[in-house]
Write a structure and sequence with these properties.
Elements lengths: L1 H33 L7 H16 L2 H17 L4 H15 L3 H13 L5
């Protein structure tokens, strides 16, 4: 009698795994669809590469240097506001101590530049 109970639990597991897989794929698709690509100009691309390095090193000093440079570039209007907003958002993430998340955001911004 105990074996019948165990068998019914085993039979229901593939359904649960399938359901979780479908939900996970749906959420991943929703993220991909809603993810807005960041367009970086040449200056923004170079700054993002430097920011990626700083995030990987977890360098507060490097982060401050990049932020100071961006503030200077803002006054000179040296690169686009969309790039500026994306980079400042990444800097805020790193300042909050979320270095890995900031590095992933840099990497994503750089990958967004690749023609697909």
């Amino acid at each position: 009698m105990a074996r019948n109970v165990e068998k019914s639990n085993v039979d229901s597991k593939p359904w649960v795994v399938g359901f979780i897989l479908v939900v996970s794929l749906g959420l991943a698709g929703l993220w991909w669809w809603s993810h807005s690509r960041v367009e970086l100009d040449e200056m923004g691309y170079d700054v993002t590469i430097a920011l990626y390095r700083v995030c990987n090193q977890r360098s507060d000093d490097g982060l401050q240097q990049i932020e100071n440079q961006i503030r200077k570039l803002e006054t000179e209007q040296a690169f686009s506001s969309a790039a500026n907003q994306a980079i400042m958002s990444i800097i805020a993430t790193a300042k909050a101590g979320q270095w890995q998340k900031a590095a992933r955001a840099c990497r994503q911004a750089l990958e967004d530049q690749v023609q697909r």
